[in-house]
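Now for a chain:

_____
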Amino acid sequence: MKYHPHLNIIAALLLWKIFCLPLNLHAQFSEEKINNIYFEKLNYENVLSNNVVKCIFQDHQGYLWFGTADGLNRYDGKNFKVFKNDPFDAHSLCGNIITGIAEDKKEVLWITTQDGGLCCYKQNTISSMQFEQYKHDP
């Protein structure tokens, strides 16, 4: 591959743009808009099922999902919905120690658990609280 000195100039300009662009964007916000930004601390007292958050995922609808050491929590920006395993309900979450959350191309949410295996949550179903369980087979 032949060396082209003008590529160094292009790379330098790109780096300059990447690092200086956030400074330019910050200057475009008015002080009023900055003062109206609100942050809320989310923790166990605010209805997270547990303070040990093992994973976080945002799905295609904008819900934030928090996988904790004691349940799955869905946050819509205002309220939490907590999902936990019920050993007497085959359509509940398969375990309570959530280790991973992902969404496939068909918008199916997949949840991995340390204590119960794999399960999926199909948000387009009529009963939106149903999970399909794939248990560990020792």
